[in-house]
Amino acid sequence: MAAGFYFLISCSAFLCFFSGTSIAADFITRSKSISDGQSLVSQNGIFVLGFFSPGKSNRYVGIWYKNIPTQTVVWVANRDNPLTDSTGVLKIDDEGNIALVNKTNSLFWSSNSSKAVAKTESLILRLLGSGNLVLSDGKGGNPDQNFLWQSFDYPCDTLLPGMKMGWDLKTGLNRRLSAWKSEDDPSPGEITHGMELYADPEAVMWIRSRKRYRSGPWNGRGFSGASHSMKDNAMFTYHFTFNEEEVSFLYQPINGSILSRTVLEMSHDSGQFERLYWDDRQQKWEFYFKLPKEFCDEYGACGAYSNCDMNASPYCKCLKGFKPKSPAAWNSMIWSDGCTHQTSLDCGKGKGEGFLIVKSVKLPDAEHTWLNKSMNLEECKAECLRNCSCTAYANFDVTERGSGCVLWFGDLIDIKQFPSNGGGQELYIRVAASDLDASRTEKRLILVVAITVTLAVLLLGCCGFCIIWRKKKTKSKELGNIAESITDRSLLDESHMDNLELPSFDFVTIATATHNFSDKSKLGEGGFGPVYMGKFPDGQQIAVKRLSKTSLQGPEEFKNEVILISKLQHRNLVRLLGCCIHAEERMLIYEYMDNQSLDHFIFDQARSKLLNWKLRLRIILGIARGLLYLHQDSRLRIIHRDLKTSNILLDGKMEPKISDFGMARIFGGDQIEAETNRVVGTFGYMPPEYAIDGIFSVKSDVYSFGVIVLEIISGKRNRGFCHPEFQLNLLGHTWSLWNEGRAMELIDPSMRDSCCGDEVEVLRCIHVGLLCVQQNTEDRPTMASVVLMLSSECALAKPQQPGFFAQRYPVMTDSSSSKQESSIANDLSATVLEGR
Ligand SMILES: *[C@@H]1O[C@H](CO)[C@@H](O)[C@H](O)[C@H]1NC(C)=O
Ligand SMILES: *[C@@H]1O[C@H](CO)[C@@H](O)[C@H](O)[C@H]1NC(C)=O
Ligand SMILES: *[C@@H]1O[C@H](CO)[C@@H](O)[C@H](O)[C@H]1NC(C)=O
Ligand SMILES: *[C@@H]1O[C@H](CO)[C@@H](O)[C@H](O)[C@H]1NC(C)=O
Ligand SMILES: *[C@@H]1O[C@H](CO)[C@@H](O)[C@H](O)[C@H]1NC(C)=O
């Protein structure tokens, strides 16, 4: 009955198909082909197979969704061999293969199935409702099993529900995804994603021959590194097959009527593996996940033997029992060198070895692993100890009580920390017995310290009480001061016990060093006063900042601030050597920078030639790191508020150093993220919310940083930038170029030659710059993200319109020379509002 009905339907569809009307069949036979312009539609009406052009002219045969307005192609037959005209024909050929030919019968693609076919007459090529194109011998039965060839075995960039990714070990077939080369070129690009046949298999995304992202091995519940596969209330179910015949993975939506696809996309020269589902109400694709999602998903982001934790700052930490391999690099957040054993292993010869457990982690790169599916954890440990090159072990399967044994050999790379209930599994890491003890002692020590501190506090409290009791007359202010100095002291003590006092220079020394503050030794004038160059008798060169007499602080407060700020030390911050207080006079003494400030270079025709792209990129990164340190990693959390090219100094090796940080603190009266009555800053570098409303936050600095990035790349000032045609400043100009896809035209002509081949890098920097100067503060990234975006290949958000992109500032603050750039008061900012 059903069969007859089916026959009727297909037959009528077939007839209509012949007559060329819009209703199409879902199959062809040997005697019929489809030519360009015709198509097959799956019976459920979801998928279409036909000819299409992603770009201008080239024609491809592919499968897409019938009812989704923007053509979403899920499979392409002739990926790297397009037809150049519309004479293509798809047919079943004499050998029983599917063939794509043009008018003169040149072959453009063939299914080339190896299975021998007796009678080609009975062959049927059908587009199934799952999006699978299947060639079968027409004998009936389930076409999902009884087929000669199926498109699901030859994925392009898309994994559809029910489609397997991975290996058929009997035939050697490896089903893996490869991203399109570009939006209009479906040929396989350099980004691929597939199952790797390691002892403990896992899915890996590759860029050329470099790993970009790993899923982590399957542990029975999910991939240990893909927390979405372990969600309880997930939208999808996952099936992993791992036996002698097959290593493969597939997914299915729980609600079968929801359309979904998983795509390997190329974005900004790197890969992105993403699952989308169709939102019927909003008529658009929604993301279910995007991988790599965050910094810690980047392969080996923290180097060997370290743990990457998105909730920690900084993200990378050496595993317990390990220390940074290159401490200096590690501290400036260059993590690629990774960590190394605190005590090197001697493989049982000395005190022996043991294992430290880390919980809820993505298991390390499984390329060099060994597996036994039936061992328990005790046997596993013994097995690992038996072999000197075994570095870690874990359960193979974590369902129920855990079973199986995986051993790692060689460096442990790419471990990611998940929140305690958010995925991952337990990993046992081999360390020397002494480090095991150390970790135990550490715990004991913490306990001891905790008890001591509690006692001390009690004692102190008691003493304090006694003091108050005895000296009722003592002003409470004094007590406050004691408390204050204790906290400040402890802050200082942590690093340099011996260096409690910042050198105070006497006035005569400084006056002599600067030839009595002569005009000749004047280097420039910043927002906080003039800067002089000086030389001590021993030959050391210094820069002296003579603060304008508006400081609200008394000498002691000033000194305290300076001491705190002098503790901020980073290779990208100018080092404060000391201060000088003389009557009303306040001075700061800095190390002298040979190459003066960045604006001397980038805005100068001759000197800008000295800055090639690599150097500019290094400068950008240096500034970013310095600023990140101020915002996040220093204990004071400093917002600079007057970041500009003239405040970036360059040392003899052209390493950038931020100067003038902490000035807001020295001038007193500022909290974090607050409004201020006194708008300090420089037009052109100030974000709208600050210039107009006086609201500042770390995001104000991010804005200034973005301006600096664009200035470094373009060699032009944001202020004073003049476009012949438009009333745009540099930001506006960049924004319009960006939207027209002509961002490369922004590049400073004097480095155009040196950035050949680095276009992607340059574009990425422009992109990051634009993200930083976005109008909306919340849209702007933090400096932590900026550093990551600049030093990794993670995907970037689309920038929104920048703040202040039209050249409509009041004329009177025009300052093309840094000497005139000075603090401006709030009343001016009202003028800024005009014309916006
Ligand atoms: C068919 O393709 C071949 C090879 O690309 C080409 O030489 C020939 O001109 C094409 N024929 C037509 C009619 O386009
Ligand atoms: C078809 O497959 C065979 C081996 O399976 C290979 O040698 C041959 O080059 C393939 N032909 C085409 C047109 O891909
Ligand atoms: C499945 O999804 C469809 C479309 O979104 C919805 O109408 C239906 O209620 C869902 N079914 C279940 C069981 O959730
Ligand atoms: C796995 O371990 C079990 C139990 O220790 C042992 O009997 C079996 O031979 C091992 N298999 C392999 C392949 O080593
Ligand atoms: C240790 O394991 C490695 C990797 O499986 C193997 O090559 C080596 O022979 C083993 N050594 C010993 C002593 O078992």
From TrEMBL:
Coiled coil: none annotated. It is found in: Cell membrane. One of its GO terms (biological process) is recognition of pollen. GO terms for cellular component: plasma membrane. Residues 816-836 are annotated as: Disordered. GO terms for molecular function: ATP binding; protein serine/threonine kinase activity. It is an enzyme of class 2 (transferase). Its EC number is 2.7.11.1. It is a single-pass type I membrane protein. This is Receptor-like serine/threonine-protein kinase.
